[in-house]
Write a structure and sequence with these properties.
The protein is an alpha+beta fold. The protein contains 8 helices and 5 strands, in the order H-H-E-H-E-E-E-H-E-H-H-H-H. The protein has one domain. The structure holds zinc ion. The site of zinc ion (ZN) has 9 residues, from loops.
């Protein structure tokens, strides 16, 4: 008789994964029951979504994950810390972005459950009982990064007055007529 992967007892399989390595795939509620915790360095090479936001080779990122219960609710507390290189949107040269972010994910299966989470928790839907911890951490890294990367003014080779998207937006707004001025003109012309 051939032993297949499916014949492995599920719980032994999960226990075997509780090592220094971050498991590739977990059953989140089982991990909550076991109060599974992991801390270590994340290789970012395989993170495709992160790769579209950063430039150059990324260094390992320190991360922690800790499954457990608080207020009777299943949750994951975690932390991501490190630095990546992004492209400054003012001068188009690389800028190093440091981040250091803690998070708490409430594990939910419905919107009603989501609404009952403490205010500073994020909701994490676990409908299919499968979770890829690396994806969870990648998501948190992306949330920790700025939408638009920029150097501090003194370090930037770009001319802020020329290329700063915010000041361009401000100029755009100056050109647009103020709706209240238009109203005033209408009243005067009556
Ligand atoms: Zn710059």
């Amino acid at each position: 008789m051939q032993e297949t992967f499916d014949s492995m007892p599920l719980h032994d399989y999960h226990c075997a994964l509780m090592s220094a390595q971050l498991p590739v795939i977990v059953d989140p509620l089982f991990m909550v029951k076991r109060e599974f915790a992991w801390s270590g360095e994340l290789e970012t090479g395989g993170m495709e979504r992160l790769a579209t936001h950063v430039s150059g080779a990324a260094e390992p990122i320190s991360a922690t994950l800790e499954f457990g219960r608080e207020h009777g609710k299943a949750r994951i507390r975690g932390h991501v810390q490190g630095q990546v290189e992004m492209i400054c949107q003012r001068c188009m040269l690389p800028v190093t972005i440091s981040f250091d972010q803690s998070f708490c994910l409430g594990l939910v299966q419905s919107q009603a459950e989501e609404e009952r989470l403490p205010e500073d928790w994020e909701a994490c839907y676990i409908n299919d009982a499968e979770m890829y911890p690396v994806d969870v951490l990648e998501e948190e890294i992306l949330l920790a990064l700025p939408l638009v990367a920029r150097h501090e003014d003194v370090n930037c080779a770009g001319d802020p007055a020329q290329t700063d998207p915010e000041s361009e937006q401000a100029q755009e707004q100056e050109k647009r007529p103020n709706p209240f001025d238009v109203l005033a003109q209408l009243k005067q012309s009556r």
